[in-house]
Batch of 2 targets.
Target 1
Amino acid sequence: MVNMGRTKVVGSAGRFGARYGATLRRRVALIERRMRDKSVRCPYCRTMGSLKRLSFGIWTCRKCHTVFTGGAYVPITILGKTFSRKEERELTRRRSQLAKG
Ligand SMILES: [Zn+2]
């Protein structure tokens, strides 16, 4: 296996050095690959590769400017589909504020 003398099997998570443990770093590398995945579509306007992470778990679409919550590092999670009613309302409110601004 070629490891370029520096990074090991963990790929992009190699920057963490020996910290956090191999399992965790491997998981980070996997997540970071998904983050760059251009085939992820905006859940609102369906544009591919338009999602941008604003903050932890907060994503925006460069096309329709929708702001929504998702995974901390990936736009859409299975958990993200189980918003409570209250959270949904809060999101809608924030979205309309953003549209006005
Ligand atoms: Zn969109």
Target 2
Amino acid sequence: MKGAYIFIYFLTISQTLSLALATLEDTCKKVAGSDFKFCVTSLQAIPSSQAADAKGLALIATNLTIANYTHNLAKVRELMSSAQERLISSPQVEVALNSCLASYAVGVSDLMSANAKIEAVDIDGALVNLSEAWKRPIECEDAFKKSGMGSLLVKEDGFASRLVTLALKITVLIIS
Ligand SMILES: *[C@@H]1O[C@H](CO)[C@@H](O)[C@H](O)[C@H]1NC(C)=O
Ligand SMILES: *[C@@H]1O[C@H](CO)[C@@H](O)[C@H](O)[C@H]1NC(C)=O
Ligand SMILES: *[C@@H]1O[C@H](CO)[C@@H](O)[C@H](O)[C@H]1NC(C)=O
């Protein structure tokens, strides 16, 4: 009798685990297309993603994007100080970096607003803020294009764009 309970217990746990994993992978299948692997890898890095529903995954994706935008802000500051130190700074690069700094700073507030609205299940409101946040890495790339210099943040802007796109698409799933 005791054995049977233990068996059922483990059966329940393993079913719960595979169900949760299916949720993460199913969610990534629905939203990520060719970025499926990136989606699974990014979200899996957060242990609570295993047991999260769409709302939980949206919050995790938004949080990851906040961390990434913050990382990019630090990178911009680092470029600004190294450009000044080495006197390699050109006015055009300076303008572009200032623009990126502003974009990512606003991007972090966009994402924090989005996060609060997802928590409150105001999904339409969250999508307004996420759409704004989505533009920030593009604005940064555009600033470099306008400067006529090559972008110093190709990798960072690309990674941030992929993450914010995931956050946006997973948030749409909550209401669809
Ligand atoms: C998101 O980040 C905030 C602040 O770091 C944290 O309190 C919260 O638990 C995180 N939420 C999720 C779902 O990871
Ligand atoms: C987020 O969106 C709301 C509209 O839903 C807007 O009023 C608010 O200013 C936005 N927050 C940020 C940080 O842009
Ligand atoms: C943010 O993006 C960079 C690439 O630009 C990546 O190397 C880094 O791991 C990411 N960091 C976080 C916290 O997501």
